[in-house]
Amino acid sequence: MKLYSAYRAPNPRRVLMFLAEKNITSLEVIQVDLGKDEHRSASFMAKSPLAKVPALELDDGRVLTETRAICTWLEGRHPQPNLMGRDADERAFIEMADRRVELYLMAGLAQWIRHCHPGLAPLEKPQFPDFGRSQGEKVVEVARWLDRTLQMQPWVAGERMTIADITAFCALEFARGLMKFVPGELGMNALQAWRDRLNERPSAKAL
User: Going along the chain, which residue ranges are E strands?
Assistant: First the structure.
């Protein structure tokens, strides 16, 4: 199997962290250079028609795109350690937490970065800086919600680490690198402590 990834991009990093947490080392990882528009090449779009990474090419030639779908496939074939829920109840609550983080934290941060950072101009044509700044303001409130959540429980979805923590960590690290977003500097001490604790895990080094 082949995993098409992109260095430091947040969604490919989610899959790489997921693989590392599960100690899955059998995939061939192929880097797609977004800066050189390799994701828009005819050969890559034959695999991922919307020109998105990551993409997982299975041994039978089928291709899975979308991070959550890739992780669901991997979880089904490598169920331990469990990261997506052991039964229907736990799966539902973990998915709720993961989707909240993906839709309201990661997506907002991505819009802020894509429309405000000059280095992303080649990927976001045209940029709308006012829109990006408005998304940045909104996402700070989402981060405050997450900070309050982590004041009451050790992990994003509850009492143990799950895929929701991977999604949140990759979102915050993307913003930390490109927009210098540091929760602790805004008084979000629980969120900062959670980030620092997760950063000590070996999977956090998977880029």
Answer: 2-5, 28-31, 55-57, 63-65
CB distance 164 to 94 below 8 Å: yes
Q: Say how many residues make up the chain.
A: 207
- Domain extent, residue 169, equals 88-202
CATH number of residue 192's parent domain: 1.20.1050.10
* Eight-state DSSP code of residue 64: E
Question: 64 vs 3, 71, 100, 113, CA distance in Å?
Answer: 10, 10, 22, 26
pLDDT tens per residue across span 32-71: 999 899 999 999 999 999 999 999 999 999 999 999 999 9
Q: What is the distance of C-alpha 188 from the center of its chain? A: 20
Closest CA to 136 of 116, 150, 119, 121: 116
Tell me if 46 is assigned to some domain: yes
Helix, strand, or coil here: 18? helix
* Model pLDDT for residues 95-148, shown as the tens digit of each residue: 999 999 999 999 999 899 889 888 888 888 898 989 999 998 999 999 999 999
The rounded mean pLDDT for the chain is 95
| Burial bucket for residue 47 (CB in 10 Å: 0-12, 13-18, 19+) | middle
Calculate mean pLDDT across residues 139-162.
97
